[in-house]
Amino acid sequence: MSLLTTLNEDMKRAMKSKDKETLQVIRMLKASIQNEQINAGHELSGDEELTVLSREMKQRRDSLAEFEKAGRDDLTEKVKNEIKIVETYMPAQLSEEEIRSIVKEAIEATGATSPKEFGKVMGAVMPKVKGKADGNQVNAIVKELLQD
């Protein structure tokens, strides 16, 4: 079942239960996917849908960080709830140990030995963790392991 089909089913369920917040987030996700389909000119593959979801999740996490920094507690709760809703459509997230293992493999495969080769390692890691790990967390782990 495609993500759009799932979103449509969940949207109907949210409407029936009068869950306005969930409905709003589902509509935003659906609009993002449909816009991406229009831009691509074809039905999105599962991987492309995952890219859109990851982008939506990143936007919300970035917003959350900004609102927390600004002390906007009224908005942080709203964004935290949105993140929980988006997470239901994301694949299971990798643990820190799993990410470290993937990063170590990438460092060995690329032969990276210094922080200057950060980009090479990230290029090898990101396709493997796409949608399954927060990019900021991966970034921090790569930097840490390249320092050693």
TrEMBL record:
GO terms for molecular function: carbon-nitrogen ligase activity, with glutamine as amido-N-donor. InterPro entries: Asn/Gln_tRNA_amidoTrase-B-like, GatB_Yqey_C_2, YqeY/Aim41, YqeY/Aim41_N. It holds the Pfam family YqeY. Transmembrane segments: none annotated. This is Aspartyl-tRNA amidotransferase subunit B.
